[in-house]
Design a protein that fits this description.
about 200 residues; alpha+beta; 4-stranded mixed β-sheet; 7 helices; 4 strands; about 10% strand
């Protein structure tokens, strides 16, 4: 397996973290994002969207971190991380969608603005951040994990950009349940970090 990766990307980190937690080897290919390597002909050939991460496993090429997490969990039969019963699977998937939408347009957008200089509506990103962080904190106030009674790929999908909120000018000080959840994830066996986490 090969992973085309950017160290500072929370989406790439989700995949690296999951592979570390389940102790699966892979070959890492750093992509020079600042030089536009993700948009060169070779990268576009692998992934027409010109995005990272990209996972190549034999003849299969996958983009999108959430899709890659699902694939890896299924490939390695990790039903502990991604269950097969309809209700439990749906509970995990709904949080994968939160990672893709509310967290991406909230804490992630704020980080893109503050850390990387992206031109976007920072006030809207911060409003969306407050909304999703408030929901997350309330949800985690009486449970340890997002979807089930154990960590799943739902937690890994939502974790990076929430934990990196400070890089978008958003403090987690008012969200004690989120802070505890972050510490639980960091305490998982084989946990690996990324810059600023």
């Amino acid at each position: 397996m090969e992973l085309y990766d950017l160290e500072l990307s929370g989406n790439c980190y989700k995949v690296r973290l999951f592979l570390a937690l389940i102790q699966q080897p892979y070959t890492l290919h750093p992509v020079d994002f600042l030089e536009g390597e993700h948009k060169n002909d070779k990268s576009i050939e692998r992934n027409a969207f010109g995005e990272i991460p990209v996972l190549v496993d034999g003849d299969l090429t996958l983009r999108d971190s959430q899709a890659i997490l699902v694939y890896l969990a299924r490939k390695f039969n990790r039903t502990d991380w991604y269950p097969t019963t309809p209700a439990d699977e749906a509970k995990v998937v709904q949080w994968l969608m939160v990672a893709e939408s509310e967290i991406a347009r909230g804490p992630n957008d704020a980080r893109l603005h503050d850390k990387f200089g992206y031109e976007l509506d920072i006030d809207t990103a911060r409003e969306k951040s407050t909304r999703i962080l408030t929901i997350l904190d309330y949800h985690l106030s009486d449970r340890d994990w997002l979807a089930l009674d154990r960590p799943t790929i739902a937690d890994l999908a939502c974790f990076p950009y929430v934990a990196l909120s400070h890089e978008g000018g958003i403090s987690l000080e008012s969200y004690p349940s989120i802070q505890s959840w972050i510490e639980r994830i960091k305490a998982l066996p084989n946990f690996v970090s990324m810059p600023a986490i």
